[in-house]
Amino acid sequence: MANITKKVSWSSRGDESGGGERTPLLNGSEEVRYTRQDAGCPKEIPHNEKLLSLKYESLDYDNSENQLFLEEERRMSFLGFKCLEISRWVICGLIGFLTGLIACCIDIAVENLAGVKYFVVKQNIEKFTEVGGLSISLILWAVLNAAFVMVGAIIVAFFEPGAAGSGIPQIKCYLNGVKIPRVVRLKTLVVKVCGVICSVAGGLAVGKEGPMIHSGAVVAAGVSQGRSTSLKKDFKIFEYFRRDTEKRDFVSAGAAAGVSAAFGAPVGGVLFSLEEGASFWNQMLTWRIFFASMISTFTLNFFLSIYNKKPGDLSSPGLINFGRFESDSVAYNLYEIPLFIVMGAAGGLLGALFNILNYWLTIFRIRYVHRPCLQVMEAMLVGAVTATVSFAMIYFSNDCQPLGPDQSEDYPLQLFCADGEYNSMATAFFNTPERSVRSLFHNPPGSYNPLTLSLFTLTYFFLACWTYGLTVSAGVFIPSLLIGAAWGRLFGILLASITPDGSIWADPGKYALIGAAAQLGGIVRMTLSLTVIMVEATGNVTYGLPIMLVLLTAKIVGDYFVEGLYDIHIKLQSVPFLHLEAPATSHWLTAREVMSAPVTCFNRIEKVGTIVDVLSNTSTNHNGFPVVVPVAASDDMGKVCGLILRSQLIVLLKHKVFVELARSRLTQRKLQLKDFRDAYPRFPPIQSIHVSQDERECMMDLTEFMNPTPYTVPQETSLPRVFKLFRALGLRHLVVVDSENRVVGLVTRKDLARYHLGKHGLEEMQLAQT
Amino acid sequence: MANITKKVSWSSRGDESGGGERTPLLNGSEEVRYTRQDAGCPKEIPHNEKLLSLKYESLDYDNSENQLFLEEERRMSFLGFKCLEISRWVICGLIGFLTGLIACCIDIAVENLAGVKYFVVKQNIEKFTEVGGLSISLILWAVLNAAFVMVGAIIVAFFEPGAAGSGIPQIKCYLNGVKIPRVVRLKTLVVKVCGVICSVAGGLAVGKEGPMIHSGAVVAAGVSQGRSTSLKKDFKIFEYFRRDTEKRDFVSAGAAAGVSAAFGAPVGGVLFSLEEGASFWNQMLTWRIFFASMISTFTLNFFLSIYNKKPGDLSSPGLINFGRFESDSVAYNLYEIPLFIVMGAAGGLLGALFNILNYWLTIFRIRYVHRPCLQVMEAMLVGAVTATVSFAMIYFSNDCQPLGPDQSEDYPLQLFCADGEYNSMATAFFNTPERSVRSLFHNPPGSYNPLTLSLFTLTYFFLACWTYGLTVSAGVFIPSLLIGAAWGRLFGILLASITPDGSIWADPGKYALIGAAAQLGGIVRMTLSLTVIMVEATGNVTYGLPIMLVLLTAKIVGDYFVEGLYDIHIKLQSVPFLHLEAPATSHWLTAREVMSAPVTCFNRIEKVGTIVDVLSNTSTNHNGFPVVVPVAASDDMGKVCGLILRSQLIVLLKHKVFVELARSRLTQRKLQLKDFRDAYPRFPPIQSIHVSQDERECMMDLTEFMNPTPYTVPQETSLPRVFKLFRALGLRHLVVVDSENRVVGLVTRKDLARYHLGKHGLEEMQLAQT
Prior knowledge:
homodimer; CBS-domain; 3 domains; Clc chloride channel; mainly alpha; 28 helices; membrane (chains A, B); elongated; chloride (chains A, B); transmembrane helix (chains A, B); CBS domain (chains A, B)
């Protein structure tokens, strides 16, 4: 059995106990650090998957049920609760509507920009095909691409680096309960939307679907708070929802709405949010999430139908549509299922390769490409290279296909083909990736020759791998689907050619679908929600079982080598991500071994100076403090009687809620929940609050503001049990007590997140200083 | 604000303290009773929705992490956990396979039996139409129906009353955490399957879908335990899963597999299970549930395709198939949505009416029809009346429709129609309800005249209402869909006739679908899962938004009048059902007011006699006992140090694990978890365990067997907070402690379930004695 030794010892913290007038012991809270790192380690450890960063705060999903809160709830009538419930529905409707609208804008903008680009390039190529000098076309294409990409990269790199990438890792973290800085700001949304339009129009191997999820989440965070801090506008509505619990619920709805708009998959969106975020199943919440998703896909569909001049045609519910898989009488045969599973395994392998390559690339980028200028240049380089490679592939390909009467190609390139024919390689490269996926799924058998597909798979694989992680806003879903569809179709064609009766494998499009699922599953390793998303996007439930088996196989095979792409990126950011369950072999760890100790506690009535000192201690930066009743005639730790948060203390200090002042200024307005809500979520730092020397000697009565019933566990509780409680209730702080109810430690997210199953059994990560 | 006074005082319990040698205070546990009921109330209060029955035990979703358990977990290697995980998948696959197989058997049996019946009656009618004497046909039909129904009713009434009805209320309760006696037994399954075949073949206004959910759950409970107590066969496999936590997880999977097989809706099945059961979202569990669902629908589909001689045709994934709703370019228009919402409201009203009528009927049945013979006779009566009414409707109808070339009717009755025509009323009445639903959805416009539909709606409404609650095994889904489809189609026809340009409402089938959703939603009030089930059954995601809006409206309107049908029946059984959240206005209640007190506690080392006495006390029948360390030199309550269950104590007593014996018989085998698992789930009653007078003087050491880290809350905790903890972790007992960690009370399911929001704010239900 795996064994583990605490590699670090706790600092004694004697230096911080200060003047000695603080009765209870100091220390221990969400942020804890180890002596070993205090002494000698490099100050800045920016990205390391072996460390847990302390720069991330947690969201507090547990309500602080202090007296103010309870009084408010008790004052509220049944009707009041009904109104709140109705507001929640209205907000979710709004979230869905706005997310759908954004998706619609992105789609129209990309269609038009890419349309203009391909039209210009096509004209140019046609002009030069006859007379020679196609290198000019190449340069034109490359420059156009690079220009688009440059704009997209500049706004991301210089204005809002948080908008880079697909945003799914960040949203995963947020739903998991980690506050990623700047992730749900309005500015991020604007940059994200513009960025994704540029990068897709710039011809990068990217999709516009991932960013939709992020966009939905930002919309939700904005709408639900009824104000924008960026715009300095407070609509004075939805004030009740200004706390982590409610906000996170709405962000789940926003993410779901994003998925729904991206793939036309409302149920998939709900399951995505549940899979990533909601640990506690709340029926009404799920129902609202579903509502937001439905509205979102409907809005997108409705406006697109108007844009396409077919109002009321609700047949394009998402940004990507796989098109209709006509279910023949026999969709697939039982004996094909093993083949599908083999494809799943292949997808897992290729996905793992993709992830490993991307991991190395990301490490390289972190070390050497961290200046914005370099990032923009790399992005432009990738844009130009993508155009060059595509051009070369098209140029050297001699796979000519006849132009059918019901031609689905938007920009058929004739190039060197005979009249009435078009270059088949161009359908894959000279097109937005969404359209290429659809062509691979639905073009009739024989539209592609195997060589075209192999070359395409190979080049696109490396291009996509290089592209993911660039400082542009872009998703990895569509490139993955495209790679998979290409090799899946190739597999189908080969199968038909090597079997005696090729006709039974007639439809290579089916294999393209399975390949796409396998490749995507191998890269992102989502399971339940991805199955449903794929099924909804194909609009054919018959493929549910094979898709599920394929995704499952891809996940098992892929997990053997390396984690999913999003998890890799989360780990590289050293985010304290909590998985759904404690590691299997962790039953022998108890709360005593896991917790941070000793803990900084406050008394019910505490000296202002003490509080200010503790909060100002930048080396600890704790966020939650147990409130204790000292045990009479004993130097021991006090009995826990509450828990108070840094943010609450800050508001109390700001409003100078001191016992002495309360006596002298009896007419003073009592502090209300509204004051806490107004300060949410950007509580001022302690440094901005001035406390005079006289005030330092005042006392603060925390009784009314602390949470009087924090969840506690005895110190013998096993890690899985602590984990379950922590995860199920979305806690931020869990007080560990002894049999006398005295505080002995505090369990926070980092204490739990640092245990994981490695190659050699249970491993413990260290905590970074930043 | 609502106010509430404790209407009952606690009994002093002085009579039960017995000899006085028990140190801690006695009393209080899962089962508590009130003095007022002790004195004078009738002994047997069989069914009352104002009471909570105490005859139901709770499932324990929280693991008892005692030393034995922890030792086992710690001994287990990582590989061991992997194997367990694989077994779970295998079991889920088996559950899906067997559930699909059962669904297949039911379908084939019903098709054949009903086919024979309709063939015979049709022949007979045709014979007598010309010559007169159709009353003989009527008698034949009525007798055939009554005969089938009699068989179905007899096996249910005399062999296994638990198999009556759809089984959905029982499964809802089980997933909610209430152990309904005999609900997951093999015998129940057999009776259920035979019963549903008889009642559907007997022409009752019932469906075979609800019972599938129950069947799936029984299969799951059986397979996962690796043994059958009824058959006295232990396969010695899956022993690890012999506890409430694991079993309940598998039952969720079984219920989902049942839904999946019934409606061809694997995702709907997953959501059903989640909506009803899993309070804690567990990703791996959900994924396994999905797997079981997929396998189930695939199995059904596969075997049905073989039966229908079209092997590999995977187009009938469920017992009921709504058929393909061909999405024209415009499925519905934006301006139709208000109409759909009006239909939703109508569905809510009609559903409420249905439920109220059925409620009165059920009350009547409880009072007057509780003898099995009477029950069988009532069922036969309903069978005969159904045939008679159907016959009368067909006889007096003169709605003749031409027999088309692509005739979808299986048994077209010509009756008095001209040659080449058939009686349209007969398509609705002279058919299995599944086929009637499909006809209403898909028959071309003009197949029914409005009068036929109105009469059909009216009669079928009352027939279905009378039928639900009979002592036969049958579901209410299909009748509800049928009623709704009939009036929905009627609505569509009327709409087309009153508007100037009728052609835009061309398809009455669309309105039939919306009406079906509205009626079903109005009766059962399921929301999320029902939307997904309907969408999956129609195979067209475009209808998602209208179906959701309709179900939502139906629920809101219906809830205004009366609860859903299943909830009514659950309440009539006085089941302590826990809803997902505490009532909104309950913040002013604290654990102190909610808990049961005083509590029967044990010492770590307790006298056997004391334990036997407490367990034998039939008037209390407690199930969980806090274990305490007495506070030195004080008569006060002890500090909590563990929690032990009745079932554990029973096993300990049975194996005579006494301190004295352990000393004398050192070689004795140590008690293992296996001993507890072998006794699960039917622990012997305390009366069957003989303890001699000498043994009564022995001591038992509970340290090793108790759960040393039970969840506790301080007594000031608000009810919603207690509720959340209880529900999120699936607890059975929650110990309430004071600031010194001394036991002051115990919160159990009944303490929480008795608060509900009534017309006048928060109301408190009383606890029944039985």
